[in-house]
Amino acid sequence: MTPTSPPPSGDDLHLLLGAFVLGGLSEDEHRAFTQHLRTCPTCQTELAQVSGLPALLALVDPVDADALAPTSPTAATAVAVPGAPSYGEPVAPVALLAEVRRRRVRRRLLTAAAAAVLVVASVLSGLTLYPVVQQWRAGSDRIVATGPPGSRTVVSISLEPRTWGTQMVLDGDNLPTDGVFYLEVTDREGRSWEVASWTGTPSGQTTLQAACWVERSTISKLVIQTRDGWHVAEATVAAT
Ligand SMILES: [Zn+2]
């Protein structure tokens, strides 16, 4: 997506939630998502659960957060949603936001970062928010795989149905910088196939494509792991 792309519409709007929380939307996108939010119970619920987390993160290391805070945060603004639960005024997780901006990470990674925030915060709060992340990602063709608690690894994997199977584009951030990694696809009958392998990179970032004959609708799990079975990141894939 380029900066000149038209605002997304339809189902794509669900995908803007993460960037919305982190203040990463353009004006047009912000307007489009705000309108969508008023009529989408799914996003209302997710936002209610997500919006308290930045404040939670701020408690973790307020000194660092202050140091990295943008002077004029364009954080998500509060939106009045009739009938929605009260979720207070969203506050951008400034440390993460600053890092994202500095690196000019694309929106899909921004969204993925929001997923990472959720995982971190779920550990801090003792809440089980991880399945929530998977749920709202599952409506799209883009899956976010995250590492174990404490890991900053976020891997966005698009799943594109083809007549021959499923094409995948993997986009990983904060992966281990060395070692060999394998992408394993598991179907709903529990059968697994290795569909890609690659080595770590100095930047911890990797983008690659993979393909497998398994139909998109029958994929149930994606795991990025090492040869000895350590799960670098994983995601469950909801039925389509
Ligand atoms: Zn929605």
TrEMBL record:
Domain of life: Bacteria
TM stretches of this protein: 109-133
Domain Putative zinc-finger, residue spans: 12-44
Gene3D superfamilies according to UniProt: Anti-sigma factor, zinc-finger domain
InterPro entries, per database record: Anti_sigma_zinc_sf, Znf_put
Coiled-coil blocks: none
Protein name: Putative zinc finger protein
